[in-house]
Amino acid sequence: MKHRIVVLGAGYAGAIAAGRLAKRLHPGDTEITVVNADTDFVERVRMHQLATGQHLKHRPLTDVYAGTGVEVRQARVTAVDVDRRTVALAAGNGTDEIAYDTLVYALGSAAADYGIPGVVEHAYDIAGRHSALRLRDRLDRLAAGGTVLVVGGGLTGLEAVTEIAEARPDLDVAIAARGGLGDWLNEKAQQHLRGVCGRLGITVHEHTDIAGVEATGAVTADGRVLPADVTVWTTGFAVHPIAAATSLTVAPTGQIVVDATMRSVSHPEVYAVGDAGLAEGPGDKPLRMSCASGVPMAWQAADAIAARLTGRKIPKAPLRYFNQCISLGRRDGIIQYVTADDRAKPSLITGRLAARYKEIICKGAAWGVAHPTLYPVRRHHITAIQSESLATMP
């Protein structure tokens, strides 16, 4: 009987894990199934571009995995039973169930509202394709002179506010940041960021906590009103609640707690990658939710699964950071070099060169997903480790 590997989610982490498993394991011994709610692979790091009217290339998952032996099922995951090793699915008007021997949980995350009143009712986000298209439609209908407020001064907020301001110079665009603008960057990067905001006419509200969102703007913690026809919420991400509803060991964030090989600390047949997993990086600091974390997590999980199934030594992926790539519209950016544990170094790249650098990184990540087995493939048979004994291996 073939060893059944089910990958839940086909974002960067899930898609890469499935492709890497197809490269490592012989199809005569394994069945690899990817379950995803969308028919396409979605470049989540480009959602600010999609929201401002830019065209993104369609990458149907059936095309991505054609010829690899990976089966694609379009369905929404509704529950996971880790005791029975089954996953409940919803597709169209029907329901189904799929069983697994090894599960790769990569359901990612969505925008976090943190319980702030009015966010769900009045704010827009760019955490996914559908929400980005919803914002796109609203911006298309916003007349010249309209006001847009981006709440959140992290990477997503900075990319969103500069993209909107560049694409729609006829709008009054502002950003509200809880701390200082880009205060995790080095001084030169912060200066460049302020210069870009000034050039694009972006109003910056620093050290500003938002206590509520209304149809006409946002209310700060000290009672001020920041007017906005459109409020874009980019304050962070929250994982789907499915894992927390199981007996898996999860962190307070709902992320699955994993070891150095991305395997659940409580259920060894389950691996978690991307935003869904809580893994430690350098300095015993949890890896942040990002593509920069999710891709090496996927490499590590896939290689560990393949090694355990085939009796080979488990390789170690570099779970560390090298830089933070920030696009500031289509013609500017910041490449902030960082330490292994993600602290800013003095060195950086800015301007058009940084924009090109970021574009190369984005294209490279998407290309890697779209060509999962283009590199030399060595598919090994399950030998030393039988499927039923996988869960007991160290």
Features:
FAD/NAD(P)-binding domain; 23 strands; 2 domains; alpha/beta; 394 residues; Oxidoreductase; 9 helices; 5-stranded parallel β-sheet
Domain module tally: 2
**Helix content class:** 25-40%
Strand content: 25-35%
What separation lies between the terminal Cα atoms? Answer: 23 Å
In the CATH hierarchy, the third-tier topology of the largest domain is known as FAD/NAD(P)-binding domain
> What is the number of beta strands?
23
Mean pLDDT level: 95
Helix/strand-derived category reads: alpha/beta
- Please give the order of strands in the largest beta sheet: 3-2-1-7-19
| CATH H-level superfamily title of the largest domain | FAD/NAD(P)-binding domain
Using the CA coordinates, give the radius of gyration.
22 Å
Poorly predicted sequence stretches spanning 5 or more consecutive residues = 384-389
> Quick one: overall form?
globular
Number of helices: 9
Q: Would you identify the CATH architecture of the largest domain? A: 3-Layer(bba) Sandwich
Task: Tell me the major beta sheet.
Answer: 5 strands, parallel
Q: So what's the CATH class of the largest domain?
A: Alpha Beta
Overall description:
There is one protein chain. The protein is globular and about 65 Å long. It folds into 2 domains: 3-108 and 240-320 and 364-392, 3-Layer(bba) Sandwich (FAD/NAD(P)-binding domain), CATH 3.50.50.60; 111-233, FAD/NAD(P)-binding domain (3-Layer(bba) Sandwich), CATH 3.50.50.60. The strands form 7 sheets. The protein has a 5-stranded parallel sheet with strand order 3-2-1-7-19, covered by helices on one side. The protein has a 5-stranded parallel sheet with strand order 9-16-10-11-12. The protein is built from 9 helices and 23 strands. The chain is of the alpha/beta class and 394 residues long. Helix content is 26%, strand content 26%. InterPro entries: FAD/NAD-bd_sf, FAD/NAD-binding_dom, NADH-Q_oxidoreductase. Keywords: FAD, Flavoprotein, Oxidoreductase. Its cofactor is FAD. Residues 4-302 form the FAD/NAD(P)-binding domain.
